[in-house]
Amino acid sequence: MAVPRSKTSKAVTKRRQSINMKLKAPQLTECSNCGNLIQSHRVCPKCGFYRGRQIITPESNG
Fold it and tell me: What family name appears in the similarity comment (predicted)?
């Protein structure tokens, strides 16, 4: 059975692990009602529609 000759340092271990810990940019899709870019499977904050139905009434900020 293979045994390492010396202990792997914390810096080397964390450097190796950090390669796979990158944050990914969210995938954006176009709202079918207003065309606003939103995350998938979320209610559109601009028009309040989700899958062709009005879910929430958006509040106007202006």
Answer: Belongs to the bacterial ribosomal protein bL32 family.
